[in-house]
Amino acid sequence: MAIVHYLTTLDSHVLPSPRSIYLDDLQAKVRENLFLELPQADGSHCLFSPALSPISEDVEKRIRNLLQENSAILEYLKDRLINALVLDTAILETASYFIQQNDFLVLARLKYFKEIEKLLEIKLYTVSKRDITVHYSDKIYIGRLFLNMEQTELHYNGLNLYVLSLMDQYANLKNKSKTHLNNPKRYRNYFVEINELISDVVGEVIRSLDAVPPVFEPVKWSADELVRIKACYRSIVHLILELSDEVSEFENVLRFNREDRFARYVTKYRKDLKNIIHQLNFNVLAKLAHRIQTQSSVTSTPTC
Question: How far apart (Å, rounded) are the C-alpha atoms in residues 55 and 32?
């Protein structure tokens, strides 16, 4: 309920305005079909339609009060969420096929609130309109993001947060293996190798991020700086790719051995790794490459 309490205390009029963006057809339709899900004290979740009408039958008093007294903050949250999805992640692009098949319905589950950093962790799913009430468990996980409602954007577009959280996520994965695997000891080598690789990758990525500016402003960087920063981010992609390949191999082995109950959690972990890679390729490396080419064209243009 920390999330609900926090949202209740916010005033959308004094929070930073969402960054100005143009929404293409897919992004605009996702905004129109965005469902929110808030946690309740009993462990259940309260689901809201795009019009912010509760779909759940049992809605806690604090959530009803939030709707009555500060529903504007939920509309603001939706705008900030779409903003972050478009500018800071590649989730909508990489999951666009499934999203379109489900009539552009995306469900945003507010999973966790970290009070010290004022961070919301939001998990994202897509599901058909029919299945959202009839077969809710069939929803497709498409990714997650971090959001600070009190800041315009996160340093490194949140990349440091996604990478650091890989360790916590893997710890949760190992805990689930105790109850969701038929024979956990059979996969001991995979757990050991992936755990060691995660530690190495996280350490190397954080060191690489120390060498790049926390705010992504390529228009302000010289050509030499652009090339240097691009090399740093490329090395991060290589590190995440190595980890992703190992996790994919583990996932395939689990599927082959019909360990589907646990494999689906490994699939989610692999999707998070792929989303980091796509984020870097689409939102960072592509922009850096374009800026480098733009600067090269300017410097190489003959003058009279």
Answer: 16
Residues in CB range of 107: below 8 A, 6 or more apart? 34, 35, 36, 37, 47, 124, 125, 126, 127, 132, 139
Contacts of residue 95, Cβ cutoff 8 Å, sequence gap at least 6:
126, 140, 142, 143
DSSP-derived letter for residue 256 is: H
Specify the amino acid at residue 233.
Y
pLDDT, average across residues 271-285: 95
Q: Which residues contact 69 (CB under 8 A, 6 or more apart)?
A: 8
Residue 131: HSE in the Cβ half-sphere, 13 Å Cα cutoff = 16
pTM as predicted: 0.91
pLDDT bin (cut points 50, 70, 90) of residue 42 is confident
- Rounded alpha-carbon distances, angstroms, from residue 283 to 38, 58, 162, 254: 29, 41, 15, 32
Spatial contact of 170 and 195, defined as CB atoms under 8 Å apart: yes
Average pLDDT over residues 77-87: 95
Residue 190, pLDDT above cutoff 50: yes
Helix axes 188-209, 223-256, angle to 10 degrees: 170
Amino acid found at 264: R
Q: What phi, psi does 124 have (nearest 5°)?
A: -120, 140
Total length of the chain: 304
Biggest CA-to-CA distance, the chain: 75
Q: DSSP letter at 139?
A: P
Token pair, residue 277, equals: 């890679």
Q: Are 36 and 55 in contact (CB under 8 A)?
A: no
| Ordered alpha helix ranges (H), 89-222 | 91-94, 96-101, 159-180, 188-209
Burial class of residue 7 (count of CB atoms within 10 Å of its CB; 0-12, 13-18, 19+):
buried
Residue 177 has pLDDT above 80, yes or no: yes
